[in-house]
Specification:
elongated
Length: about 80
């Protein structure tokens, strides 16, 4: 398999999935800041937006973890 083909499969490899989970952690920081700001300003709409964003983040991370678990030993970048 060529290096280009391996690079195209990076998103569905173990390192690619771990990188995606890591970027989700940075998204969580932003969501927590939004929740804190919404509570301070007593802005219900901003709070609802932050909660929906948090739920999407949790769901996305769960999907990534499930794919990582299913990946098993057939990781294309490991050889």
């Amino acid at each position: 398999m060529s290096k280009i083909a391996k690079a195209k499969g990076f998103k569905h490899s173990k390192p690619g999935l771990l990188l995606s989970i890591g970027t989700s952690a940075f998204g969580a920081i932003s969501i927590f800041k939004d929740i804190k700001k919404a509570r301070g300003e007593q802005d219900t709409l901003l709070l609802a937006n932050a909660v929906v964003g948090a739920l999407a983040l949790v769901t996305g991370t769960a999907l990534l973890l499930r794919e990582l678990k299913q990946l098993g030993d057939d990781d294309i970048l490991l050889g």
